[in-house]
Write a structure and sequence with these properties.
CATH topology: Jelly Rolls
Radius of gyration: 18 Å
Mean pLDDT: 76
Low-confidence stretches: 107-119
Largest sheet: 5 strands, mixed
Structural class: mainly beta
Helix content: under 10%
Length: about 160
């Protein structure tokens, strides 16, 4: 039976071997959150971009939590990313109209205990930003947005 090592395990298995040190994005680091809230104006349209939060250089994305009121009178679709890749973190999540639901975006399809969710994978799990960057939500499809409906949540990341 062989003993195999992860990339990070190779870096620490043998002090005599010179490997690159483990980076803070690989071990440790303080988990941080950036919170956001957006209130519909009622004039949102397909392909609009909502800038949610800015993350610092070196931010490694772990999880995104979203909660919404009834944002439109019909179903709508969002994605979450940045200006270079609008679905870097979350690709095409359909949300039902006239329903208040939580959306917890994690690394697999397992719903965390005690969370009422439409659970979707966070495709950008572990992505590290090379510079300070706006995290954006793109409205892929939206018709008849509901004025004053609120979309809120937070993004969890490590940076140091």
């Amino acid at each position: 039976m062989a003993t195999l090592y992860s990339t990070q395990g190779v870096k620490i298995r043998d002090a005599a071997t010179t490997y690159a040190p483990i980076d803070v994005t690989e071990a440790g680091g303080r988990l941080r959150s950036r919170f956001f809230s957006y209130t519909n104006t009622g004039s949102e349209a397909t392909n609009d971009i909502v800038r949610l939060v800015k993350v610092p250089k070196g931010a490694k994305i772990h999880r995104i939590f979203l909660q919404n009121e009834a944002m439109a009178t019909t179903a709508y679709t969002i994605e979450i990313g940045d200006s270079a890749d609008t679905d870097r973190l979350v690709a095409s999540v359909a949300k039902a109209a006239a329903a208040s639901t939580d959306l917890t975006l994690v690394t697999d399809a397992t719903t965390p205990a005690g969370v009422n969710t439409d659970n979707n994978p966070l495709i950008g799990y572990g992505y590290v930003y090379g510079s300070e960057t706006w995290i954006e939500m793109k409205l892929i499809t939206v018709t008849t947005p509901t004025a004053n409906a609120v979309f809120r949540g937070h993004i969890e990341y490590t940076v140091d």
